[in-house]
TrEMBL record:
Residues 49-372 form the PRMT5 TIM barrel domain. The lineage of its organism: Eukaryota, Fungi, Dikarya, Ascomycota, Pezizomycotina. InterPro entries: Arg_MeTrfase, Arg_MeTrfase_PRMT5, PRMT5, PRMT5_C, PRMT5_TIM, SAM-dependent_MTases_sf, Xyl_isomerase-like_sf. This is Protein arginine N-methyltransferase. Residues 570-793 form the PRMT5 oligomerisation domain. Keywords: Methyltransferase, S-adenosyl-L-methionine, Transferase. Coiled coil: none annotated. Belongs to the class I-like SAM-binding methyltransferase superfamily. PROSITE patterns: SAM_MT_PRMT. The keyword Kinase does not apply. It comes from Remersonia thermophila. Residues 1-20 are annotated as: Disordered.
């Protein structure tokens, strides 16, 4: 983030991952607080359990000065009409001088630079009305906003909270407000701006604080009767306009006011994806329990627990729950503090406080109770994994680059994946014997005992070799095993591992698997045989994005036909449109150094996102894009190479393929067109990609479940729970794409190749239903292409 420390939960100094569960960082806000707390008041407040406090920038005197200024301006306009003879039409001339708010004086504020200024959440004046239809009130409000923001920023405040719009149905007012916030981001160039917004406009909870509009034009402050039907997404619409006008600034956040009645899940998830800085909870949201203490409903508890799982944990502000400033103004008798009465000492000990000091606030005590009641961090919420939440990583290019040992080590730290691989290998070996399939090698010492030829292509540091040896031992299968690795440094490690752990049972070959000449059976070094079981771990976050199809094309000629087995047997790519403002803003901030950021498929552990599509009959939330299965029965490239030699299969002459190449890899191109249903309106920032793989499907016909792995959110717990080897892939959009309610998103994606590289192209279109059988196109993204950052073959 742009601002570190202070009240920035994104800073490295604010980390709670060393705890067993999220930590609640609780602050206090008083709506009618006229002045910042004194040092003594602040110290006393901390003893009641709060960790920070809000502070106004200006005081009541400044408010009265602004009111008097506008009164004087109105009187001056009357003088123009009476003395200068201006007509009513002339008074409406927008070029007439308007009111100008003079700069702040020392009598207008009690906020000054201090050691703890970074620990204050500065709350700007709630009486301004940036949305006012009166241009003069709107102008005064904007001037006050900039004066306060610039001064607080100069004092060293790092978090400025600005009250949000009070109505959502005034498009002009929301636009004015958004433009003013963008201006404030420039005025306070080092501070984070936090917009205080309700989760939705809850009936009966309209803000009643006095504003300039209600003072000078009561008709501007009155609210129309609330409609019978409540549109719970209007507040989010206003927020979306504000942050869009501000170009998704990385310094713009939300303080979300929790309502008395928790809304439906779709709205909760919509706000979950937004950059939450604070959760604010008013006194009226709490309900007394049987003992009379404040408490929250189960729905509120679930919502808070959900939001507290974010990597940047939002802080909690309790509003108007006390203690009030006057309650913090007493001065204890030093003698009474040092020598309390027995009753006072007993009560203080019971309340875990010092004698004659304020007791722990009841609302804070309850929130600390909720903190202890949270579910502890799961195996998928370790500090290392949490640090990867919504962190963009370019995808690996294992064919073009040699991976570091540390990268291999991360992959090897996932037992779930390798357990599934071992299960698949063991089942393949068992069924090979049950089905009495022929093998491709014999034991030279005992020709009556056939041996299974196993090859691990792309062995890395050897985890799959270990699992294959273990599966062979468990099933009593005699094997001859080859391990292929092109990385010279990893090959050295394999040599040592073969001596130390594998007892020299493994035939190691340093080569690109596509250039391997094939296995030479033990005792017959002049002959080349076939591979019975080929094992690879070439899958990427989208299944094929690390060029598994191209790699396997180059080695499958060595597989025994027709009974040779490939593990994995097949894999499918899946897509779902998502809203992820954080990732969009992150990519946008990188454009100066990475101009291809919005056309790069990023690997990212998606977390603060909203899946905008809903599951309906025939239209699931996660839809399959395409599939690859191995081995491929017929490959033109193999036949061409048999006739003309291996070198010619990589030649690129002619323009017969779709990408203008020779077409030898055209069979690995793919295309999909998917339709997603969105009942509620929203905005998407890109496509989330996932994969599933069948490692081995039983061939006995006994109805056994296939051995699978999956990173699909709705399937991973069933097929490969707690697997961490792959994060999803994210295909961003250059511009956020807004869609109205009851729309369909049409997603087109292509996997393209020109025989030397592979890339993706994607397009999203929005269609709205305007009749039972009529759709109209209401929006579309441009065609995106990752060709400039393509995967090299």
């Amino acid at each position: 983030m742009s601002s570190d420390g202070g009240l920035n939960p994104e800073s490295d100094s604010f980390e709670s991952q060393s705890q067993s569960r999220p930590v609640f960082y609780i602050g206090q806000h008083e709506t009618n607080r006229p002045e910042p707390l004194t040092d003594d008041q602040y110290s006393l407040l901390l003893t009641t359990g709060f960790r920070f406090v809000t502070a106004p920038v200006t005081n009541q005197r400044f408010f009265q000065r602004v009111v008097d200024l506008y009164k004087a301006y109105l009187k001056e306009r009357e003088e123009w009409a009476r003395q200068d003879g201006l007509s009513a039409a002339q008074l409406q001339n927008p070029s007439l001088p308007g009111p100008v708010v003079p700069t702040l004086t020392d009598e207008d504020t009690s906020l000054y630079p201090s050691d703890y200024i970074g620990s204050l959440a500065v709350y700007l004046s709630p009486w301004i009305d940036l949305c006012s239809s009166d241009p003069h009130i709107a102008s005064i409000s904007r001037q006050v906003l900039n004066l306060e923001a610039a001064y607080a920023n100069w004092c060293g405040a790092r978090t400025l909270i600005i009250p949000g719009p009070r109505k959502d149905d005034d498009g002009r007012g929301i636009a004015q407000y958004a433009r003013a916030i963008r201006e404030a981001l420039h005025s306070a160039g080092r501070a984070n701006i936090v917009i205080h917004m309700p989760m939705y406009r809850e009936p009966g909870l309209d803000e009643t604080a006095e504003t300039l509009s209600s003072i000078f034009g009561p008709e501007n402050g009155t609210q129309e009767d609330a409609p019978k039907g409540i549109d719970i997404f209007t507040t989010w619409d206003s927020w979306n306009t504000i942050r869009s006008v501000c170009n998704y600034s990385m310094r713009l956040f939300v303080a979300l006011r929790i309502p008395r009645r928790v809304p439906e899940k779709t709205l909760q998830e919509r706000w979950f994806a937004e950059p939450l800085h604070y959760l604010t909870i008013g006194k009226d949201v709490f309900q007394p329990n049987r003992a009379g203490h404040p408490s929250l409903t189960k729905h509120h508890q679930a919502l808070i627990n959900r939001y507290m799982r974010l990597r940047s944990i939002p802080w909690i502000i309790l509003c108007d729950v006390g203690p009030r400033p006057e309650e913090l103004s007493f001065v204890a008798d030093p003698m009474a503090v040092d020598f309390p009465s027995l009753a006072e000492a007993t009560q203080a000990l019971k309340e875990k406080r010092k004698p004659h000091m304020p007791a722990i606030n009841a609302h804070v005590a309850y929130m600390k109770f909720l903190e202890r009641q949270q579910p502890p961090y799961s195996a998928m919420e370790t500090p290392a994994l949490t640090s990867f939440q919504d962190w963009l990583q370019p995808p690996l290019q294992p064919l073009a680059d040699n991976l570091e040992s540390a990268t291999y080590e991360v992959f090897e730290g996932d037992p779930v994946k390798y357990d599934q691989y071992e299960k698949a290998i063991a089942q393949a070996m068992t069924e090979w014997r049950e089905l009495k399939k022929p093998t491709s090698a014999l034991d030279p010492k005992d020709p009556s005992k056939p041996e299974l030829v196993v090859a691990v292509a792309g062995a890395g540091r050897g985890p799959l070799v270990t699992r294959a040896l273990r599966a062979a031992e468990a099933t009593g299968t005699a094997i001859q095993i080859w391990a292929l690795e092109k990385n010279q440094d990893a090959y050295v490690y394999l040599l040592r591992k073969n001596k130390v752990e594998w007892g020299n049972k493994v035939n190691l070959v340093r080569t690109d698997m596509r250039g391997w000449e094939g296995p030479r059976p033990r005792g017959s070094q002049n002959a080349i045989t076939k591979v019975d079981v080929l094992i690879t771990e070439l899958l990427g976050s989208f299944g094929d994005n690390e060029l598994s199809p191209e790699c396997l094309d180059g080695i499958q000629k060595h597989m025994a036909r027709p009974h040779g087995i490939s593990i994995p047997h097949s894999y499918t790519a899946h897509l779902s449109p998502i809203s992820t403002p954080r990732l969009y803003a992150d990519i946008g901030s990188r454009l100066a150094t990475d101009p291809n950021g919005f056309e790069t498929p990023w690997v990212v552990r998606l977390f603060a996102i909203d899946y905008v599509a809903q599951k309906v009959p025939g239209r699931p939330r996660f839809q399959q894009a395409w599939e690859f299965a191995h081995p491929v029965p017929i490959l033109r490239a193999e036949r061409f190479a048999e006739e003309h030699g291996d070198i010619s299969r990589y030649a690129t002459g002619g323009v017969g393929s779709i990408a203008g190449a020779s077409g030898s890899n055209e069979h690995n191109a793919r295309h999909c067109h998917l339709t997603f249903v969105c009942p509620t309106r929203g905005v998407i920032h890109g496509l989330a990609g996932f994969f599933e793989s069948v490692l081995y499907a039983s061939q006995t016909g006994e109805g056994k479940e296939p051995v699978e792995i999956s990173i699909l959110p709705d399937q991973i717990d069933r097929k490969s729970k707690d697997m961490i080897s792959w994060f999803p892939i994210f295909f961003p959009l250059k511009k956020p794409l807004y869609f109205p309610q009851d729309t369909e998103l049409e997603v087109s994606m292509w996997r393209q190749t020109d025989d030397s590289k592979v890339w993706y192209e994607w397009l999203v279109e929005v269609y709205a239903w305007v009749g039972p059988k009529t759709r109209i196109k209401v929006g579309a993204s441009e065609l995106h292409s990752s060709r400039k950052v393509a995967c090299l073959m």
